[in-house]
Amino acid sequence: MKAFVVEKYGKDGARVAEVAEPTVGGRDVLVKVSATSINPLDKMVRNGEFKQLLKYKTPFVLGHDVAGVVTQVGSAVRGFSVGDEVYARPRDLRIGGFAEFIAIDQDDVAPKPASLTLQEAAAVPLVALAAWQVLVDRAHVKPGQKVLIHAGAGGLGSTVIQLAKHLGATVATTARADSEKLVRSLGADVVVDYTKEDFSKVLSGYDLVLDSVGGANLEKSLTVLKPGGLAISVVGPPDAGFAKQLGAPSFMGAVMNILSRKVRKQAKSLGVRYEFFFMQANGSQLRKLGALYDSGKLRPVIDRTFPFGQTLEAMAYVEQGRTKAGKVVVAMVPDNG
Ligand SMILES: NC(=O)c1ccc[n+]([C@@H]2O[C@H](COP(=O)([O-])OP(=O)(O)OC[C@H]3O[C@@H](n4cnc5c(N)ncnc54)[C@H](OP(=O)(O)O)[C@@H]3O)[C@@H](O)[C@H]2O)c1
């Protein structure tokens, strides 16, 4: 089959190649991929930025989001049949969505939301799971709480805004002026143009900040929280919880605690909290999210769709920050949806 393969770690290490079809384990569904989407994580994994923690052995197929049709099920699979339209964020170390076929553990898969085309559904899993896990599992966002979501026009931010609004939060976001209309339509109540204004000078009393920018942006984010408020960063620095989540040896936890010591100390001195977050595959959460897409509470935001033969260009487009808003989809087959 055709796949987009990382042959060696690094910027020029990946290309479309012919590889063997995946073997299907007892708990796996084999999915004929209709579409995938690009996440910044793809670039990081290709570059080897995670190789101490996520030990992918080259050559391996890249790609963290999938929508497609089930063509085979393992002997222990329950609830999926050949012909089902599904979507998934395959678990770490079993990624490989940029391919004609992928075998995915049944626990990571959910039926595609009926209201979305396969290409639209491919834009959803990773960012929607991250949104759910940050807002619901970690921060327990309640109606009336004030939530600041950075980079609201991005693939992640555009999804988190919608879910935070659905949960009843008052939502502020940072975005360029030309994205203001979009982020307001997604549910943002307050929009700060990060190219013109310093959000930390105009926002205060927040229960939660989601940082996807890092560095000084994270440090400033701590100052807009109310006492006891929580800053969650999806870009780091990592903390010991991340090493534990990945099952890394305990010394890695100590290393990560050192990496995040400065920001945790800053948070403590301000009477607020800091946590790093890294999303996980979860098919049952994708089912709940699917219902929110089908009821119109959430919608995918798609910047552009590339054909599979242009996966390199699609990745470069995202890496160069050329997206105006939302996700970049890669279509394996034309969408009839
Ligand atoms: N840990 C996790 O589980 C997890 C999950 C999802 C994403 N992430 C990470 O989160 C980051 C964003 O992901 P994404 O999928 O949303 O990427 P994306 O689609 O490429 O979006 C990035 C967005 O950031 C905006 N931006 C850049 N600088 C900014 C600033 N200083 N203030 C506010 N916005 C700014 C860009 O807006 P302009 O184009 O207008 O500049 C763009 O809309 C990536 O680093 C990704 O790896 C982590």
From TrEMBL:
SUPFAM superfamilies named in the record: GroES-like (SSF50129), NAD(P)-binding Rossmann-fold domains (SSF51735)
One example GO MF annotation: oxidoreductase activity
Domain annotation Enoyl reductase (ER): ranges: 10-330
Gene3D superfamilies in the cross-refs: Medium-chain alcohol dehydrogenases, catalytic domain, NAD(P)-binding Rossmann-like Domain
Record keywords: Oxidoreductase
PANTHER family membership: ALCOHOL DEHYDROGENASE RELATED (PTHR11695), RETICULON-4-INTERACTING PROTEIN 1, MITOCHONDRIAL (PTHR11695:SF294)
Protein name: NADP-dependent oxidoreductase
Organism whose genome encodes this protein: Streptomyces sp. NBC_00119
Lineage: Bacteria, Bacillati, Actinomycetota, Actinomycetes, Kitasatosporales
